[in-house]
Amino acid sequence: MSALSVIIVAGGRGLRMGHEVPKQFLNIGRRPVLMHTIEKFYSYDSAISVVLVLPSDQFPYWKALCRKHNFLLSHKLVEGGPTRYNSVKNGLAHIGDSDLVGIHDGVRPFVSNQTIERCYLVAQSHGAAIPVLEVVESIRKVEGDRSWMKPRSAYRTVQTPQVFKSSILKNAYDLPFNPDFTDDASVVEAAGYDITLVEGNRENIKITSPFDLVVADAMIREE
């Protein structure tokens, strides 16, 4: 397999959490969310190259947390941009041209080794792989005051890591920014590449609300 890299994007400001501390720095268990996330990738492959993208004004706070918690796992700090698109593009400048590169949300600390492995293995053979889950709730399409039932079997929810051959991802990120780019797969798709879906894991939640933090804290205590 090609050399493995992951860009972990953590640009949150904590507004939806109601905290002054950005959500990626809040504790679950005894340590910040972001440390748990980075550890997941090292537990999959101890040789993986980790690029952590943060707003530059958060660098000192993160470095202080690393000292406090004696967090020694190697990672390269890269300054984020005004959008997620810009942040990923900044991170890509530090990725080798022949790497397999994953893009992962810093606040998804429960991705499983199996999900990570599926993404990298399929990206190696197909070029682009993203983890998804079947929709378990009924869904409806809303237009104005009207709504319609839609068959949930035709839809999937999308997780990270989204993994690509770095040459594909770098080519895609040469496209100009478009507000319709909601994730990396949408950028790659706009550049004309196909996306292969793989199975995600239900525990791979994105921590974005106070309720998510309660759930995450309970989950980390069960590990």
Distance separating the two termini: 30 Å
CATH topology: Spore Coat Polysaccharide Biosynthesis Protein SpsA, Chain A
Q: What class do helices, strands and sheet pairing give? A: alpha/beta
Question: How much of the sequence is in beta strands?
Answer: 15-25%
Oligomer: single chain
Main CATH class? Alpha Beta
Q: Work out the number of β strands.
A: 12
Number of helices: 7
Indicate how many domains the architecture comprises. Answer: 1
| CATH-derived architecture | Alpha-Beta Complex
The succession of helices and strands, N to C, reads EEEHEHEHEHEEEEEHHEH
* Biggest sheet record: 8 strands, mixed
Can you say what the CATH homologous superfamily is? Spore Coat Polysaccharide Biosynthesis Protein SpsA, Chain A
Poorly predicted regions are none
Rg (CA only): 17 Å
Helix content: 25-40%
Shape: globular
Mean pLDDT: 94
Kindly describe this structure:
The chain is of the alpha/beta class and 223 residues long. The protein has a single domain, classed as Spore Coat Polysaccharide Biosynthesis Protein SpsA, Chain A. 32% of the residues lie in helices and 24% in strands. It contains 7 helices and 12 strands. The strands form 3 sheets. Strands 1, 4, 5, 6, 7, 10, 11 and 12 form an 8-stranded mixed sheet that branches. A two-stranded antiparallel sheet has the order 2-3. Helix 5 packs across helix 6. The record marks 152, 206 as: Positions MEP for the nucleophilic attack.
